[in-house]
Amino acid sequence: MNVRLDAMDRKILAAVQRDASRSLDEIAQVVGSSKTPVWNRIRKMREAGIIGQQTVLIDADALGLEACFFVLIRTSEHDAAWQARFLATLKARPEVMEAHRLAGDIDYILKVRVANARAYDHFYQALIAEVRIHNVTALLSMEELKFTTELPI
Question: Which of 66, 95, 115, 124 has its CA 20 to 30 A from that of 49?
């Protein structure tokens, strides 16, 4: 969506994505404005689709989801029916945190969060039971060095 954002809009977006639980008064103070203009800008950016759903970040390790796998998938099937089934399978699996279709040698990459290697194997077995895949490579993340949801505004 092509929406023009000025410097104030970008300051508001930076403040909101850093901590969406802040009150309108706090956001206005951070960006150097008053509450009503900030609220109007936030409302317009929501209506334009720039600001989407608000959510919270939960510590996966605290919930026992200590293993993060990056799953590289190659397929020899690229027809619409296969892609629709693959997408439906991914959407039905809560372990899949992200999925991307790629350019290059690998067709797809998934970010999968599970408790351990055994849980990953259950995920893998369910995945290949649902869709035909030519090759799967799973890479275990040993340490998350950086994580952010903040876009570089």
Answer: 95
Mean pLDDT of all residues in 2-13: 93
- What φ, ψ does residue 138 adopt, rounded to 5°? -110, 130
pTM beyond 0.90: the answer is no
Q: How many CB atoms lie within 10 A of CB 95?
A: 21
Domains of the chain and any CATH numbers: 7-47 (1.10.10.10), 61-140 (3.30.70.920)
pLDDT of 44 > 70? The answer is yes
pLDDT tens-digit readout, 73-88 = 999 998 999 999 999 9
